[in-house]
Amino acid sequence: MRNLWRVAMICVLTAGCFMACATARVDSSAAGRTNQTPGLPTSHDAAVPEATLKAFDYARAPIVAKIELKEEHPTYEIYRVSFPSYNREDPLNPDTVAWYYRQRDSHRRAGIVQIPILGGDYEPEKFFAENYARAGFHVLLVERKEQLFAIAQGFGHTRQVIVDTIVDLRRWLDWWTTLPELDPHRVGVTGISMGGMLGSVLVPLERERVAAAVLALNGGDFPELLATSGEDEIIALRNGIHRMYGWDVWQMREAARAALNGIDPLALAPRVDPRRVLFISPRFDQVVPFELASRWWEAAGRPRRIIIPTGHYSSAFFMFYLHRKCVEHFRDKFGYSAEFGRG
User: pLDDT digits over 44-91, tens only?
Assistant: First the structure.
């Protein structure tokens, strides 16, 4: 996965002409076309069990963060920010870490939380974070937690890491929205692949604080994804589970379904306000199958959707096109003009 992203990015940088004329299919519902984002009806909320919402509960407390300036650019600075993780019992993840791309001027601005992919050295996330910063947004690129999958510890461990990740993302919002330079009414979330999966859990939980979101290359039904994905890391996981437990794919899927019950993106999808979301799907995705992407899209109320004619990794050929669409979406939902952030 890491090498494929690196190769794809190199190809992107040498294929500007191709991307300049790239085209995509867009599916839009009436909800996806409006700028208004009023609350959802009670009947919509009722589709999500209370136990699902409580799974991500946490006790709010003041956060003391360690902040270190790492880079300076003409219009923004990059800080490394960290504070203790909520779950103090996880030895692999004692702290939660983020990279804060902070605009240097004194204006109160919108901010975008960037959630990372499953593995790698953060190249695709940095691409989006840097370009969001150049477009005038504050950006908070949150690092992933280590070891989402631990075969010997089973899917109960995976469930705990997912919950811990979401809880700490909520705590990042607690910290970030207290800063004077951030407009707390203009906070966005974006994520690719696993980042999109996690984002599709965070966004409906934080409906009061997240005004807009772009979710890309993700889907619903995580157990089914584990059983069908062509991602190398997932295939290795399936093989390792088979060697350790003797389970076939069906048995593995059912074990995952039992352990992850109630925290899957599909469980929270009815709470998504589709008017706030842009959803991006590769039509020929073998990592997150298109069927699973469409299943989440339907459950989330059919938000505006861009379908690109690629696979998972070859979507990198559309990076610049997709980033432009992301910026347009956030500007629109935040009520900014097309000139926001320029110059």
Answer: 565 788 889 999 999 999 999 999 999 999 999 999 999 999 999 999
**Strand locations in the chain, DSSP E?**
25-27, 66-72, 76-84, 95-103, 109-115, 138-142, 182-192, 212-216, 277-282, 304-308
Two tokens at 211? 């005004």
Q: What mean pLDDT is predicted for residues 222-245?
A: 94
Residues whose CB falls within 8 Å of the CB of residue 79, separated by 6 or more in sequence, listed in order? 67, 68, 69, 70, 99, 100, 102
CATH code of the region 2-8+49-334: 3.40.50.1820
Q: Does residue 181 come out as left (phi exceeding 0), alpha (psi in the -120 to 50 range) or beta?
A: alpha
Contact 168, 152 (CB under 8 A): no
Could you give the angle at the alpha carbon of 186 between the alpha carbons of 180 and 188, nearest 5°?
A: 115
Answer whether residue 185 shows pLDDT above 90: yes
CA distances from 230 to 220, 234, 236, 247, 326 (A): 16, 7, 10, 18, 27
Domain ranges, ordered by start, for the chain: 2-8+49-334
